[in-house]
Design goal:
Blueprint (H helix, E strand, L loop, with lengths): L13 E4 L3 H12 L12 H6 L5 H13 L1 H9 L7 H9 L3 H8 L8 H8 L3 H10 L6 H10 L2 H20 L3 H21 L2 H8 L13 E7 L7 E5 L2 E7 L16 H10 L2 H12 L4 H7 L4 H13 L3 E4 L2 E4 L6 H12 L6
Parallel strand pairs: 1-2, 2-4
Antiparallel strand pairs: 3-4, 5-6
Helix pairs in contact: 1-4, 1-10, 3-10, 5-10, 7-8, 8-9, 13-16, 14-16
Length: about 350
């Protein structure tokens, strides 16, 4: 069958960055109220146990947030602007009408459901039920939909105010200066790499090899560095915009920033390529996607040894596995040279 594609491809999108302790606070609240994920985070399970006990007031708000997933509505409200302080954000919320507050707080569900969403925030019971049903398979949205639409404006504002102010006082402020520095350093690194790479190369690099490509409705892709949810990338969206909360690079988490410390991902790639057998495998896979059996037949090495080499190449994001076939991440070929140039030119030290 032949296809004649008349659809409009994405003609261009803007890549931007935001840095704010507000985002880190919302993600911290998301993490602490989601115990099932603690063992998958860089911060050890013990960290989350030692973070408690919180004050009685904060614990009440956290319990409420865990019950209704209100961390998500805070994240969505934060995407309304590039807020620089907690007071600025809270002041913005108080200036919204009740319908605006609820509409912006609910997640974006695509153009098909926008009219229903508008009715839901006006209190239409049938619309609320339909939204909830449409999100039935999502782990967070169903409870959030009904809760947000049925709460009063005052209750929503009071909860957000008490939760964020208490979280800042008890969790963020003690390490705010260092945390802000980590986030700003990482953004500066990523902005410099964006200059050296194509947009698609950059997206693939920062998202650890993901093949995400914005569709025609996306006009902006926003990247927000985060520490608390490492190693996860959190993806969300607003109308016309995709947002990625990405984990900051390892070198920015050192107690004392070391400009001579190379990026772990760069070291990993050079190590992966610094082997004759692995280079042979890369060339074979570059020429054509291959299964493990095909590679075993083509290279005079044992299956276990080849599997080990392939695992190293995958961890360095040089190759990936698609339907049991190994393929090259072509968009990332040569990116280690750009990383090396960035490391040499932008991390100047003695004698600079």
């Amino acid at each position: 069958m032949k296809f004649f594609d008349t659809t409009l491809k994405n003609q261009g999108y803007e890549i931007g960055f935001q840095v704010s302790l507000l985002h880190e606070a919302a993600l911290g609240i998301a993490a602490v109220t989601y115990p099932d994920i603690h063992q998958t985070l860089d911060k050890e399970h013990l960290y989350w146990e030692q973070a408690r006990p919180f004050s009685k007031g904060l614990q009440v708000e956290l319990d409420f947030a865990e019950q209704h997933n209100t961390w998500k509505l805070i994240l969505d409200l934060l995407h309304r602007d590039d807020f620089k302080s907690l007071d600025q954000f809270l002041s913005y919320l108080t200036d919204l009408t009740e319908e605006e507050l609820k509409y912006y707080a609910l997640p974006y569900l695509g153009p098909r459901l926008e009219a229903i969403k508008q009715k839901a925030v006006q209190g239409d019971k049938q619309a609320i039920a339909e939204l909830t049903e449409q999100c039935g398979n999502h782990p967070f949205f169903p409870k959030l939909m009904a809760f947000t639409c049925e709460q009063s404006q005052a209750n929503l504002l009071n909860h957000i105010d008490r939760l964020l102010r208490s979280w800042f006082d008890e969790v963020i402020k003690v390490n705010a200066t260092n945390l802000e520095q980590i986030l700003q350093q990482d953004r500066a690194e990523k902005e410099q790499m964006l200059v050296q790479l194509t947009d698609q190369q950059f997206i693939k690099w920062i998202l650890a090899g993901s093949n995400y490509s914005p569709d025609s409705s996306v006009t902006k892709v926003c990247f927000i560095p985060q520490v608390i949810y490492r190693p996860w990338v959190i993806q969300t969206e607003q109308e016309g915009m995709q947002i990625f909360y990405y984990p900051v690079s390892d070198q920015h988490l050192l107690d004392h920033y070391d400009r001579y410390q190379p990026a772990f991902s760069m070291v990993q790639r050079y190590k992966a390529l610094a082997d004759e057998n692995r280079l042979r495998l890369v060339k074979l896979i570059y020429e054509n996607s291959r299964t493990l059996k095909e590679l075993t037949d083509l290279v005079n090495l044992g299956k276990t040894t080849i599997h080990h080499h392939l695992a190293l190449l995958r961890s360095a994001r040089i190759i990936r596995l698609v339907d049991r076939r190994y393929v090259i991440n072509k968009d990332l070929i040569g990116i280690e040279s750009e990383q090396l140039l960035y490391y040499l030119e932008n991390n100047k030290g003695v004698g600079e």
